[in-house]
Amino acid sequence: MFRKVCAVAMLAFAATGACAQGYPSKPIRLLIPFPPGGGTDILSRLIANRLGEAEKWTVVSENRAGAGGTIGIAAAVRAAPTGYEMVMGQKDNLVVAPYLYKSVTYDPTRDLVAVAHVGYTPILIVTQANSRFKSLADVVAAAKAAPGTITYGSPGSGTTIHLAGEIFKDAAGIDIRHIPYKGSNAAMMDVLAGNVDLMVSSVPSAMAQIQSGKLRPLAVTSARRSTSLPDVPTVAELGYKGFDVSTWYGLFMPAGTPKEIVATMNQAVNKLLAMPETRDAIHAQGAEAQAMSSDEFAALLKADYQKWKGIVQAAGVTVE
């Protein structure tokens, strides 16, 4: 019996060690929980491509969109914990969606492992370049003059971006109508066409259109101005003190993934984030690169998961 127990223990140890030392020995799949073209998609593909260049790994990106990003997260939760399946998560589908969607059954702090924090970004309120709204004050004045007539688009109901719009409505005491889309690209096309008055967006999703002069940024919702758009004021600066809503992005793997594999991926991503060319590429998309240990990232996830329960309840937003 003793020999059998020892043999099993040695096999388990050998399997874990071999798994870590030989990792990765085949392509890694990176699930992207939103459609192509949005902020999550842009940053996911950037990281996947640079991991391939720096580490000579094959990282295959796959969009698995729907239900505010929860479909992609649920697929990652169900995946085998071998290190060959990971997902780019953010506040939307990890710390907000579980309190909004009755269909969500995962607990991100229990069912996923926080692998590597990639970066964070403010949220923008934008309008078409030729819009009648020259400032956020114009929006508020028009909304108060004609309640319910102004519309704003978002990448989907239940996202942090959607909630940023709802929290601003409450802070400003105005009634503007939310139009949810399936991803940032669809919302962007409609705001550019003038079919919706405003869009609440991540900076990466809107950056190219701002730089081309097609979108006018009115405000950022974070506590500090975006270093990518230093001339755009914060909502707090415009009279709504204490207003602060932003989002972060990071890589996750299914619970049970060997610690050695998590450490390997964390080190590889953090090495990328230390490279000026990677940081510049992330910054060019309107996000801020920020490396963390997996433990630090797990602590951030847990803190936000607890904090946003109260925010969602206070906003009174639910999604079927």
From TrEMBL:
Residues 1-20 form the signal peptide. The keyword Signal applies. InterPro entries: BUG, Bug_dom1. Keywords: Receptor, Signal. It comes from the Bacteria. Belongs to the UPF0065 (bug) family. This is Tripartite tricarboxylate transporter family receptor.
